[in-house]
Amino acid sequence: MAEAREGPVLIFDSGIGGLTVLREARMLMPDRRFVYIADNAAFPYGDWPEEALLAHLLALFERLLDDIRPACVVIACNTAFTLAGAALRARFHETDFVGTVPAIKPAAERTASGLISVLATPATVKRDYTRTLIESFATHCHARLVGSKYLAALAEAYISGGAVSDEVLWAEIAPCFVEEDGRRTDIVVLACTHYPFLANRFRKLAPWPVDWLNPAEAIALQARRVLGQRPADAIGETNRDLAIFTSRDVRPEIARLMQGFGLIVAGGEGA
Ligand code: DGL
Fold it and tell me: What is the mean pLDDT of the chain?
């Protein structure tokens, strides 16, 4: 375990997806202070070549860890963690990193039909990490990988009040639904932290009911375990939760969404 230190809990994503994890983490750790980082300068990560994204993340964390000195970091992003988790832990070994990976293991344990789908960014479905998870835990089932180029951006648009049509959403999730020898997909893993914001829409569009697996609570539980009894950087009137954007070019609806989550927005138009 890394050296124990006070400081806020840093929750990191390319955009708003990590809010799905922050929501759970706050419920489990109401006294802790959180700093939310949205790397909007680089959003979406799903389009980045692996080498460039890895170098970008290592350089960004060099600065973030120096500036924020967090008690621990939650990488609330599958696309980032499946690529850079090991390198971040190796480079910054004095910091505890809690990761987010596609919830293939729990899906494989729970499926009754043996057909599961993994809905993620195109980058996450291509990662060696994801293939290894399937080889390690899901060889007894059929795991279909569904890479969506647009859903992360659609989730950002939808959650900030934009119109997103059923047709567009259906085109992205339709390949998740497989029927084979009288069996049907019964679990869809939400392997991008943005997607739980669209889960109610997905439920309405599904041709049959499936379990939409959202790992946010499990990630928050792991963060609480890692932090243990460490002295908290306590939340208070003068020490509130922050949202920091890596680019000042923040859409006002996104800044308002962060404020709606009770975060003080630093950087961007909401500052
Ligand atoms: N929220 C991120 C994830 O969990 C991905 C969004 C993006 O493409 O940047 O994978």
Answer: 94
Compute the distance between CA of residue 250 and CA of residue 81 in angstroms, rounded to an integer: 24
Q: Which pLDDT value is given to residue 190?
A: 98
Catalytic site includes residue 192 = yes
Q: Is there a binding annotation on residue 166? A: no
Q: CA 21 to CA 218: how far, in whole Å?
A: 9
pTM: 0.94
Helix axis angle, 19-28 to 216-227, nearest 10°: 50
- Is the pLDDT score of 183 beyond 50? yes
Residues present in the chain in total: 271
192 pocket-lining for ligand 1 (C-beta < 6 Å): yes
Question: What is the identity of the amino acid at 27?
Answer: M
Taken in order of first residue, the domains within the chain and their CATH numbers are: 9-100+217-265 (3.40.50.1860), 104-214 (3.40.50.1860)
Q: Is the CB of 45 under 6 A from ligand 1?
A: yes
- Please tell me which residue in 72, 77, 141, 176 is annotated as part of the active site: 77
pLDDT of residue 239: 80
Q: Which of 17-26, 167-176, 194-203, 229-238 has the lowest mean pLDDT?
A: 229-238
Structure tokens at 90: 């190796």
Kindly state the tokens that stand for 25: 């983490």
The whole-number pLDDT of residue 267 equals: 63
| CA distances in angstroms from 100 to 77, 221, 223, listed in the order given | 6, 12, 11
* CA nearest neighbour of 173 among 196, 200, 146, 197: 146
**Is the pLDDT assigned to residue 270 strictly greater than 90?**
no
Q: Phi and psi of 44, rounded to 5°?
A: -90, 145
Cβ of 46 closer than 6 Å to ligand 1, yes or no, is: yes
d(CA 21, CA 194): 10
Give the model's pLDDT for residue 129.
97
- Indicate the residue type of 14: S
